[in-house]
């Protein structure tokens, strides 16, 4: 039985490799609804093992997919807001505190 590594999606290089592998699989027709087909997850796991020398299972990969998808949806919603205040240099949304409070009450809390 393989010993799986701990997944860490905040590291930039593994995250980039993961996204690139997911895009390749999706663009190759291995998408199933809002996720990828099981065979795609197997190829992604093999690719990551070669690239970053970590052994991840399908559940870890799917959790990474869901986590990054949620982050992307939040980022898209923020940057599409009129007068969003996105700073491309710092890559942050620089709203005043009052605007953040209003957004958080309406969307998070």
Automatic annotation (TrEMBL):
Location of the Myb/SANT-like domain: 15-103
Pfam families: Myb_DNA-bind_3
Name this polypeptide is given: Myb/SANT-like domain-containing protein
